[in-house]
Specification:
Chain lengths: ~350, ~250
């Protein structure tokens, strides 16, 4: 066997291993989704859930629970998990920083402020809160994202400056949010707090369709840039030397981040942990070739949020624990064990 | 092949490079030497299109430039093969085919690091990393090769081998190569010509034996040195001590 044959065989092996990881993740996602649909005030046997999903159920009640109530919520967990996992992965890559995510860089805080603003203004607005809250959250997520990327457009801006700008925005929006909470009525305050916890329960099929459509549109755009994104991990200078137009790639990436984060946060509130952690989990298993890292980050986000969604219904039987809290409670120990066990340096 | 005319670069108010004119022919290796901060990296960044500049940079027939910046380490979870494949970024498709991998494997083999192909770049020594990044630049099939301190982390043998390979490739493929180096004896041995930068200006250029003189070393580096020659007539610089008293301004007319 020649040296080239050996290198090619090694490459094929590595690619096959990564595909196996993605398939295992897909299987885990199917399992957590079934569990998520089965759990609730009335626990449905998995077999009944399977039959209903295959449109073979005889029991109309099971069908109604599965199709009208639980399936959209379970699928929303997947769509939002994918959106947050993807946006976190892109952000960490283009900013070359393991702490970057839409939560740590103020984009979720922007969305939270946008939502709170509408809740406080409430009756004064001419449109229904049901639409105005997500719309405002989406707009302010976009404003925060634009703020960070505008700084990136300044000549000589470094990734570190972008991270600092994001952190500054986080503090700004948190302060503004605190101000709104300070002046809010007790009812509005309660609503704001509930929104900030994050909840999948407001999901409807149309809302799910919007989030899923945005994710579906962003994925091909991201994969087209996957090699250029991979080059970014070698630093701006080397990426430029390789022919990457770093400025325009960052702008494209920020546009997609604001879409993905904005639409996810708008409909389910701030679920912070996933955008930070899902890419790290994915990186441990598949490395940083973005052709694999991006799908793996999406898959990790889906699996974590879906598992958290099921767990949020199991912790206190009959009650629903806020999903944002559960995600962190389950995810943090899992994540810590994972990074401690990771044998290879991965950042 | 490569022609620089009155090249100038400013960073804010600071003049990093001033009116540098230099030609590099096909098949020629030019070593760029000079003290820290003399503008070596800036010159390469300008030629690679990464720094705004005045003056003119001419390439014969729109030649492709391969630039290897100085190494500041990388902790990315990327394999050596993936890093080298990135050198072919312009033509790399989502699905990597056998030709891409073979081309990368061939370069890794020529640099003697084929066995590192599936190791992570973050796990390598500084010297190994420099070899990987050289393979990356060569994978882009450049006609103009710019290497910024490519031997700074290499042991003696690897320095000899890397520069020997660079010279061979330059001749074989008719490249125009600029290599920045700190070791003048290495520069004298491997380069066809040397260009001495000092405070952003081109102080001297020519064959090593003409340029490396005690007077140049005193004026540019502020050191007293003996310049002899080895059995092949290649100059050998032996530094004695730092100059006492104020350093003469080499840029003064």
């Amino acid at each position: 066997m020649s040296a080239a044959d050996l290198v090619w065989a090694g490459y094929r092996r590595r690619a096959a291993r990564r595909m196996a990881v993605l398939l295992a993740a897909a299987a885990a996602i199917v399992a957590t989704t079934l569990l998520d649909v089965a759990t609730g005030p009335a626990f449905l046997p998995l077999a009944a859930v399977g039959r209903s999903l295959a449109r073979l159920a005889e029991d109309r009640t099971v069908d109604a629970i599965v199709w009208s109530i639980r399936l959209p919520v379970a699928l929303m967990a997947l769509a939002v998990g994918a959106a947050l996992g993807l946006s976190g992965a892109i952000m960490q890559t283009i900013l070359n920083n393991p702490l970057a995510s839409s939560y740590t860089l103020g984009i979720s805080a922007g969305a939270g402020f946008g939502a709170a603003l509408v809740i406080v203004l409430g009756a004064a607005l001419p449109v229904s809160e049901a639409y105005a809250v997500p719309a405002s959250a989406f707009i302010f997520a976009g404003i925060a994202c634009a703020g960070v990327s505008l700084i990136g457009g300044v000549r000589g801006a470094t990734p570190e400056m972008l991270v600092l700008a994001g952190i500054a925005l986080l503090f700004l929006f948190q302060a503004l949010l605190s101000l709104l909470q300070y002046v809010a009525s007790p009812e509005a305050l309660q609503q704001i707090v509930f929104w900030l916890f994050g909840s999948l329960q407001r999901t409807t099929w149309p809302k799910l369709a919007i989030v899923a459509a945005v994710v579906a549109l962003c994925v091909p755009a991201l994969l087209r840039d996957s090699w250029r994104l991979t080059a970014m991990r070698l630093g701006d200078e080397r990426a430029k030397a390789l022919g990457v137009d770093v400025k325009s790639l960052r702008l494209r990436a920020f546009t997609l981040i604001s879409l993905l984060t904005g639409v996810a946060v708008a409909f389910v509130g701030t679920i912070g942990f996933i955008g930070l952690v899902a890419p790290h989990v994915a990186r441990i298993f598949v490395g940083e070739d973005q052709r694999f890292l991006l799908p793996a980050s999406a898959a990790a986000g889906m699996a974590i949020l879906s598992a958290a969604s099921a767990a949020s219904k199991l912790i206190v039987p009959g009650a629903l624990f806020p999903i944002g809290i559960v995600t962190a409670m389950i995810g943090v120990p899992f994540f810590v064990v994972l990074i401690l066990r990771a044998r290879r340096a991965y950042w | 092949m490569l022609s620089l005319e009155r090249l100038g670069v400013r960073y804010g108010g600071h003049v990093a490079l001033c009116e540098v004119s230099l030609d590099v022919a096909r098949g020629e290796v030019v070593a760029l030497v000079g003290p820290n901060g003399s503008g070596k990296s800036t010159l390469m960044r300008a030629v690679a299109g990464l720094a705004r500049h005045d003056g003119r940079i001419g390439f014969a027939g729109g030649a492709r430039v391969g630039f290897m910046p100085q190494d500041f380490g990388s902790r990315a979870a990327l394999s050596v093969l993936e890093v080298v494949l990135l050198g072919r970024l312009r033509t790399l498709a989502l699905r990597v085919d056998r030709d891409d991998v073979d081309a990368a494997a061939l370069l890794l083999g020529r640099l003697g690091i084929a066995e590192l192909a599936h190791r992570l770049i973050g796990e390598l020594s500084g010297g190994q990393r420099q070899l990987v990044f050289l393979a990356q630049v060569l994978a882009g099939v450049p006609a103009v090769l710019l290497l910024d301190e490519p031997t700074s982390a290499l042991d003696l043998r690897n320095q000899l081998e890397l520069l020997g390979l660079v010279r061979r490739l330059t001749r074989e493929k008719g490249l125009a190569t600029i290599v920045s180096l700190h070791d003048l004896n290495t520069a004298a041995r491997f380069a066809d010509r040397v260009a001495v930068l000092c405070a952003g200006r081109l102080h001297a250029t020519g064959e090593p034996r003409a340029v490396f003189t005690a007077a140049m070393l005193r004026a540019v580096y502020g050191v007293e040195a003996d310049v002899g020659a080895d059995s092949n007539g290649v100059p050998v610089v032996t530094v004695q001590r730092a100059c006492t008293g104020p350093q003469t301004d080499p840029t003064a007319p």
